[in-house]
Design brief:
A: mainly beta; B: alpha+beta; MutS, DNA mismatch repair protein, domain I; Alpha-Beta Plaits; five-stranded mixed sheet; 15 helices
């Protein structure tokens, strides 16, 4: 079972007007630097619903998807039923 | 040769709901109006619901009876649909400035400047189809042809998620065998009239004697014959074109049937506010009004009147509508729905001739009042200020929706400037 975990994000607009997330803070309070943005794609979230922008990012050795939908950022988190 | 695409989002409302709630994606889904406001009918359904023969316009009760399994009923969220529709149309606009919306889920796109032949037009149509699926998550049927009417017909031929091409070479083979009722502008009544003269297919219509057609359907007969022959030359309007507005109207289905005159007056006041605001926004006054009345047995009638002088004042519109109603209904059955339409529009910059005995101070006061109410509504929303009358009769829910959330019907033959 997966759910949306809304996260705090520090991001900056570059000179081209593109939004780049640089750090996320999870609901448990831990913060993680984004090492690299691998891909930015407008797309629907086919698993949890909605339309927005998907940032594929590398944090440490993990590649994760960070979604921006209706002005809010979230990641997919596994949760118990 | 023109290359025109018509794209049609498949099961648009139901698809949007499935997109936002993937857990219902594999169930029969219908999008319904608000039952409490007596709009409780099926507005859209997905393909699984279609298998149960659920039709648009069925009541929620009928739909549940038809569906043996679990039927998911979702209340319509027009704000969401408009937002998604804009996202899709933003993709279309990347391909051409000549992009003309036809309702919330359909649009024509003229790509003549990008495509040199039908193969290239097909490739562009397929790219648009894939992008809409990839970026928005919706499926779209695209028709490619050399005029708007055939492009629209083509988009209906293969659903969902497909591209269909009708060229100047093959249209007689593909389109002419289709039933005449498939053609734009051939509704139920027109199809029945044509049937009496043994005009069953679009091909029959194209080959029919022009004089006979004119005698059956008048000018419209010639128009639909030119459609059938592929001679439609109407342009795809640019996104920068302004629509030439002929009339402005609003109607509401009331939460309960109206039986008292003060409720009728209050409803007309609510409608007049909305119509007046839209007229002011477009800088119009109207020289005539029409009211539409639907009683509890769904009998509908429309009545027209001319006004003494052009106006866009809420008070004058309300009283004109109310007087027209009282004149036509000395006694009346319970009323289910009321509508008010301003017609015969003139620019509000045109001079108005008042009579010698007009109380000009009062008119200026009312104009100032309307403009203040409009500016408050612009800033704080349509529910922020209202006529006290409208709150005494329990018709508060009858307020027409905020303009930006309203979906107004559109006609095909629109003039633009």
């Amino acid at each position: 079972m997966t759910r949306k975990e809304y996260v705090d994000v520090i991001a900056f607009f570059d000179t081209q007007g593109k939004l780049n997330p640089i750090k996320i803070r999870l609901s448990d309070g831990s913060s993680h630097m984004i090492d690299k943005i691998l891909e930015v794609k407008k797309c629907p979230d086919l698993i949890l619903g909605g339309i927005g922008t998907r940032y594929s990012v590398r944090i440490g050795s993990n590649n994760i998807h960070l979604y921006l939908q209706d002005g809010r950022w979230y990641i997919h988190t596994a949760c118990a039923l | 040769m023109r290359y025109i695409l018509h794209s049609d989002l498949n099961n648009f409302y139901a698809s949007c709901e499935c997109l936002y709630n993937p857990s219902i994606r594999n169930k029969a889904v219908v999008v319904v109006g608000d039952a409490e406001k007596r709009h409780g009918i099926v507005l859209a359904k997905n393909y699984i619901a279609k298998k149960y023969n659920i039709k648009t316009g069925d009541t929620i009760y009928e739909a549940r009876n038809k569906c043996e399994g679990e039927l998911v009923c979702v209340k319509a969220d027009f704000e969401k649909y408009l937002r998604i529709s804009h996202m899709v149309k933003d993709i279309y606009k990347e391909y051409s400035d000549q992009m003309e919306s036809f309702g919330i889920d359909e649009a024509w796109i003229d790509i003549s400047h990008r495509a040199k032949n039908f193969d290239e037009a097909y490739a562009i149509a397929d790219e648009i189809r894939l992008r809409v699926f990839d970026e928005i998550g919706l499926t779209v049927s695209v028709g490619v042809s050399f005029n708007k009417v055939f492009a629209k017909l083509a988009s209906d031929l293969k659903k969902p998620n497909a591209v269909t091409v009708i060229t100047d070479k093959n249209f007689k083979d593909i389109i002419w065998p289709l039933p005449v009722s498939d053609l734009l502008y051939v509704g139920h009544a027109t199809a029945e009239k044509l049937l009496k003269f043994n005009i069953n297919t679009i091909g029959d219509l194209a080959k029919c004697d022009t004089g006979l057609l004119k005698s059956i359907l008048g000018k419209n007969g010639l128009m639909i014959q030119s459609f059938a022959r592929g001679e439609d030359s109407s342009p795809v309007h640019s996104i920068y074109d302004k629509e030439d507005i002929k009339s402005i109207g609003n109607s509401v289905t009331l939460p309960h049937d109206l039986e008292k005159l003060d409720e009728i007056l209050a409803t007309f006041t609510t409608l007049a506010h909305s119509v007046s605001k839209r007229m002011s926004d477009h800088h119009f006054r109207c020289k005539g009004i029409a009211i539409s009345v639907k009683d509890k047995d769904l009998n509908t009638a429309e009545h027209h009147t001319r006004l003494v002088r052009p106006t866009n004042s809420v008070s004058e519109l309300t009283h004109a509508a109310y007087d027209l109603f009282c004149h036509n209904y000395p006694s009346f059955p319970p009323i289910r729905a009321l509508g008010l339409r301003a017609c015969d529009l003139v620019p509000d910059s045109d001079p108005v001739q008042y009579s010698l005995f007009t109380d000009m101070d009062k008119i200026i006061k009312l104009q100032k009042l309307d403009s203040v109410v409009n500016s408050i509504r612009d800033k704080f929303g349509p529910q922020s200020i209202y006529h006290a009358d409208t709150r005494t009769c329990d018709i508060s829910d009858a307020t027409p929706d905020d303009e930006k959330h309203s979906i107004h019907p559109v006609g095909y033959r629109r003039d633009r400037s």
